[in-house]
Amino acid sequence: ARSIAVDAAGHAWVAGSTQSPFFPTTTIAPNGLEANPNSGGGFLTELSADGSSILYSSVVGFTILDIAVDDAGDVYATGVGRTIKLDPATNTVRYVASSFGVARGIAVDSIGQAYVTGFTTSSAFPTKNALFPELHNRRFNEFGEELSSPDAFVVKLSSDGDVLFSTYLGGRFSDVANDIAVDGSGAIYVVGQTQSDDLPVLGGLDTSLGGNQDGFLIKLANDGSSLLYGTYIGGSRDDEVTGVGVDGQGRAYLSGTTNSTDLPTVRAHQPTPGGSVFLNDFPDDGFAGSIAADG
After folding, report:
1. 85, β-bridge pairs
2. DSSP letter at 170?
């Protein structure tokens, strides 16, 4: 399993990938999303509030990396090559949006607009109303083949699946987005990892790259037209932010991994890296923190 979301009834939706021909299903895949029985696919499974029964389960023909559920009970799934909106009550696909590179995170707001993030190395990524319309660090080999480093991307979809905006997000080296959230005012929060020392950071707590790779948090306006704040997250070694959530006051809560012994900590339950006995086998140490609404 790669992702979990909880609907208004307290039902847990779990998504991921499977190659098992015996994966438990309650229905066939929605029309147009059938999986190849020889190669497996992604799964969407709904569990009852007490976890005692499967209410919905289907295997679809693409790898799912994240899911979200809206107030009406529709399910949004994204992953490699496509994003879908599903009505599980009728097992009907409301829309399929594709060509978004590798999408690692999805969020949905109160009116059913979806926000998708991930990464792409393509200079042909479809941008619209873009804050950053071009791929950073585009380069080619001697045969004319593109060898560009990945950029993160952010896409906003209407409740019907139309693209409202689509933009690159990154600097001159590798940038990958892992998760996305949206707050009550519509502001968009994107997190991931970066090797760029020129990431667009504004008013954040850390405006310089610490190690070879830092985590990052960037907050965008709801229409994608402006950067509200941006910050690196990390110490002197490799760091990555893998998850983000936002509370009612606009505070962002982050989680991820770090190799840094100098990761900034405040009122920390564990202020120094743990598990030193296993450091050589398990070099990453998980971290969690919160960021004020203004960064």
Report:
1. 76, 95
2. -
